[in-house]
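Thread: quick sanity check before group meeting

JM: Hey all, I'm pulling together slides for Thursday and realized we never actually wrote out the predicted structure for the chain we discussed last week. Dropping the sequence here so it's in one place. If anyone has concerns about the input, flag it before I start.
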Amino acid sequence: MYYIAKAKNILFALFCCCVLLSNVAYAQDKSQTAPPPNLPSELFDNTPLTPTKVFDNLYCIGTKSVVVWALQTSDGIILIDSMWDNNDAQLIIDSMEKLGLNPQDLKYILISHGHGDHYGGAQYLKDKYNAKIFMSNTDFYYMNNTFDGANAARSPKCTVDEFLTDGQKITLGDTTVTIVSTLNCTPKVGHKTTFGGAVFL
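JM (edit): ok, ran it. Output follows.
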């Protein structure tokens, strides 16, 4: 059982890393109507994906552009990221229901980094279900000081209930998520803001 649990943790980390890396490539300070050259069209494709149970209590929800992860615990649901905007937030709600998950059980929203395709639906979900939003202080600063590219007007800024730190443990019911800081870089020369990132194990 130990090896199965470790394998699941590693697989989960790989999934999160893939999401982070794909979306770092997207955020090149271009508008969504004029995507940067040489990027796959899928990065701008809002076609919904079939919501899927990945294993045990982990579910994948989203579109060809970006996905979120719903982690069901004995005391509610932890959502990792929230996609682009309020419309995507409603897609998350509808997808949860298709999976047999109750959106009313949404307790925590963990934002992996400060790009609009990750925080854009969070405030809608917070207002609707009183869920708490978690994000690093670095990403909170980036979100609130960047207004183009992936952080253009499409994605509403969100309030944050708690700032995440490296190594922090978030426990809900029978499940504990460990925060691992993954990056801290300047998007391009001339920018004064930085953004971070997190993997949730």
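AS: nice. Helices lie at 2-26, 86-98, 116-119, 122-129, 137-145. The chain has five helices and ten strands.
JM: adding both to the slides.
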